Amino acid sequence: MALSPQPGEKVLDMAAAPGGKTTHICQLMKNSGVVFANDSKKERLRALQFNLQRMGCTNAIVINYDGRKLNEHVKGFDRVLLDSPCTGLGIISKDHSIKANKQMIDIYKHSHLQKELILAGLDCLKPGGVLVYSTCSISPL
Questions:
Q1: Residues with pLDDT less than 50, the chain
Q2: pTM for this one?
Q3: Which of 5, 25, 103, 110 has the fewest CB atoms nearer than 10 Å to its CB?
């Protein structure tokens, strides 16, 4: 696993809901240390909390901040996971409405958002920390 969280570390999942990656991180850390599970959408927190409880994660703290401003609220992480929101262009063959509804400005906005999230994630790390970035589709700009 690229993130490779270790027991006793302080880890941030910047876009945690519904919690699949977060619960896996907690398990890899053997429920020691602390995992901050953030999601910017309040309506997604219930599923996140449910899954953390269902999977027996006792080292997770659920928070609700705009990921672009997380560095104003929390810092000093050993590891940060950012599974960034994407454009959706990767499923264009399955969902033809994406082709009809997406405009170039949407691609630029997502690109800008992703850059802001990466910079905030980097600012949340302590020196020598690790940030793992992923997204489901990449669009050239």
A1: none
A2: 0.90
A3: 103
